[in-house]
Amino acid sequence: MVVGDISTGTDVLVIGAGPGGYVAAIRAGQLDLDVTLVEKDAYGGTCLNYGCIPSKAMITASDLAHEAGNAEEMGIYADPEVEMDEMVGWKNGVVDQLTGGVEKLAKANGVELMEGRAEFASEDKARIVHSGGGQGSETVDFEHAIVSTGSRPIEVPGFDFGDDPVLDSRQALALEDVPESLVIVGAGYIGMELAGVFAKLGTDVTVVEMLDSVLPGYEDDLARPVKKRAEELGIDFYFGEAASGWEESGDGITVTTENEDGEISEFGAEKVLVAVGRSPVTDTLELDNAGVETDEDGFIPTDDRARTNVDHIHAIGDVAGEPMLAHVASKEGQVAAEVIAGEPSALDYQAVPAAVFTDPEIGTVGMTETEAEEQGFEPVVGKFPFNASGRALTTGHADGFVRIVADEPSGFLLGAQIVGPEASELIAEMGLAIEMGATLEDVAATIHTHPTLSEAVMEAAENALGHAIHTLNR
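User: That's the sequence. What structure does it adopt?
Assistant: Structure tokens below.
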């Protein structure tokens, strides 16, 4: 029996329950708005279920296995045995705990949860198509809508994610057996993070990249320690190579690439992971029916209040374009909910941190020295190497540095770049400092616990001022 279309109404319809959507829904509920949150797959979205959280769980587990088996320098001798299916099971348990928490928090804040795929019927009406035979659909009338449908992996022509040996990041994180060999197409942050995971689990990893370096978009001196460490793990790199196809070969596959001169190269592997970026999920929404405009790449342009060209329809997270980061989506979700509730809220991207969970990690926030010069500042730079940090040396991870960029005349902090142990955590101090309008003196004068990695931040500020103690001053 097919259930007929029914109709309901809500103040705020949130489409997509990822880190942008569920945060927007909860914040709107806190502001006493009637909220309906629609999700077609899993609460928590790609980040909690298939991306941020599972990848970091696998990074932690593979790091632990690798370090336990490679600690002879510390007098530790071990030969860990990895049961991949059990590791994946543990990872899934972490994911389940978090996604279950999202549902409970949403309900506790009065959010109505609805499963299905949403598409606009007009600028104030959406149709929710429920999955499964005979489930039918329903119409939701809304006063405001927030689009937070996220993004999906970009497919390379000739590499269909439906083919067994061809993996996207979601499929790679669900493998229950460690592949003997793996070709990774793309040396961006997803490709490099997963290259490290599988290399540490014993996979023979080859990375092919169209451009001429790893982590395009990051400064060379940040990417260089990551590439060096990857090579120490046995990862092979081939740059200037565009993946053109694959075919079955013996017990595995052969991946073919082509350089700008038309020369063909072949790489044998058990599987191939394609990680060349992500594209917005806006093609399923029937945005034209609501009059919402997209750009040529499918992203939805928004203003500093997360509004689209249709004032009462907002877009947040990956669908709204760069920076495509989960924490940005969450902040945009909060702002969208507050704007809808009439609060004086707006977005400020001045101090947005970013992190890459490679080995070593990278963390950045604010401006680089070059960007500061381009914006008319007179930058001064302070730097502190981790090989001069007592705490870094005691962890066995002393590659990299902390760099701080400030405006020399005023001392105001403009940006920071960190490559090294726990960079993803250390960058938070600099984000807060920039947000608060702190100066080099403020950071340098703040007593940091000894021995900690965070002392490197203090020493970098002191270096910019010319009086660092544990490194030579500029």
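The first helix runs from residue 21 to 30.
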